[in-house]
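Most newcomers find our protein records easier to grasp once they have seen one. A learned vocabulary of local backbone shapes supplies the integers on the structure line. An example says more than a description, so a record of this kind follows:
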Amino acid sequence: MPSVKFSLEGGGPQRIEVTWSRWWKNTTVKFDGTVLGTIPHEKALKAGQGFALPIGGSLRIQLVQKWFEPELQVLHNGKPLPGSASHPAQLVNLAAGFLYCIGWWSVAVSTLAVFFKIQVLVKAGIGWASVIEGAIIVWLGRLVKRRSLPALYAAIGLVILEILGSLLGGQSGSTMVHLALLVVLFRAIPAIRQLRATETPGPHHTTSAA
């Protein structure tokens, strides 16, 4: 039975637990081990359901379809819980993680093609340029992790070029993967903006000299 746990605030104890059975049946919500309620089936979960917390405030659980896959949203007083799928930091980490995976995979495969002369890969145009491109993607992923919007825009541009190149070259096999990545990257744009807005000092913010 799948289970996820969340804190009410970043770095706090994981007091919220959500478990469910196959096909999103019997989704059970617990607070400090005590059952708050159960959502019987997927249809009810997609409609969403709220729960009152013993310490005050409310919790809302809802299954939302996001492009290629469903997303379990867990909101505390209307805001995503830290670590939940819709939390801005989670969306940024997901985008960076995708870039890391694709970048390192490109570096590894391209390096093998170059040093071991794997003809299938060489004929497909994989070589030193692919190694460099993979390294750039990894670097962009690192910058996205640090919440850099220019790096995110650059990554989106590279993915769009990859899609166009694949379509023009008649190699549409990886197009769906690139489209999925593109969705993840676009969702990270407002997430980074939101995170940076909450971290930017206000106009009256002052810092003391060391």
Remarks:
- The chain has six helices and eight strands.
- The first strand starts at residue 3 and ends at 7.
- Residues 197 and 203 are 12 Å apart (CA to CA).
